[in-house]
Amino acid sequence: MEDWENYWAKKQNMHTYAYDKFAIFYREYIIKPYLRKYITKYFDKNSKILHAGCGSGQVEEDIPDSTFPVIGMDISSNAISVYRQCHTNPNLIRGDTLAIGIKAESLDGIFNLGVMEHFSEDDQHKILREYHRILKPDGVAILFIPPEYGSTVIFFKIVHYLLNSILKKNIYFQPLEPCRVKSKKWIVRIMRSAGFKLIETGFAPNDFFTYMVVVIKK
Description:
By secondary structure, the chain is α/β, with parallel strands linked by helices. It is 40% helix and 19% strand. The two termini are 28 Å apart.
């Protein structure tokens, strides 16, 4: 929790400034259209959707509220503040993805990007069971999760090694990622153990092979 408050507080130095500028560009021009593709493919008009771990919410700016009403949720009060700056009349709640304060079977869909990998496998199971609880029958969740072999994972492993092992700087650009995607077989096991059916996985050049996109249905 504290790590995410610090992350969204935007206490910048030379290294984090460059990272933040790159992250904004990446969300705006790469991830937004990629996310929209999946949202429009799997959700009908007026579907009620939760962005669980919404952060700044920049990735959903192209999703019209009149077509797909999105509820933003984040545990960080600083993230909520940044989200408000990026959206007019946002529908926001502050909440914990491990214990979402939404009644059972009340949502058509859920999505998140770069969230699941920050939790242990046991906590990922708890999160998925919580998603299962709040989704309507046949509800869909779309999860963007970096795999161990993803391009940015490899890139930042190299950067962190240079900064921290060679230069002794102790600089990390975001909270730790203890459990990334290991394989498609691993994804199938995790999703099925939480009661979901795996509908689709995608690992494509659309986002420069950053995320494994996992689509699951209750």
